[in-house]
Description:
This protein is of the alpha+beta class. It is built from seven helices and five strands, in the order H-H-H-H-H-E-E-E-H-E-E-H.
Amino acid sequence: MQLREKQKAKRIYGVMEKQFRNYFNEALKIKGNTGVALITHLERRLDNCIYRLSLSPTRAAARQLIGHGHVLVNNKRMNIPSYQVKMEDVITLKPKALQVPSVKKLQEEKNPQIPAWLERKGVAGKIVRLPERTEAEADINEQLIVEYYSR
C-alpha cells in the first residue's frame, strides 16, 4: 500500500524517483508534519502551478510549455519545470504561448477552478500564499509515503 501511494504521487506530479526522494529529504528537514511538507513542495513546482492556474490542460503540457521557454517568472524566462515558486512570484505566459490551441481554449473558459493560494488575472498568475494540505490533490495519503521512506 505504501509503495503504491508513493508511485501514485510520483505519477500525478510527473516526478522521477530520485527527485521525489530529494523532495522527501527536504520535507524531513522542515519542522512539523513531514507528509504535509512533502505535498507542499510538490504543489509549489512551477509545472504544477501552471496547471493549477488553468494555463495548461495537464501537468505534462505545462512541463512542455516551460521547456520550450514560454513561461516567465517575475518577468524572467524560466525553463526549469521543477523550479520552486515562492510567495509573491508572478507567473506569466509569453504571447507566443497563447497561440497554442489548448492554451487558447483554456483562456476562453469562464470559471476555471483555481485554488485559493493562487490568483489569476488573464494569462498572469500570482502566488498569494503557500499551499495548504487541504488544497492539494485529495486522493494522496501522504502518511503512507512517510511510512514507506521511514522503514
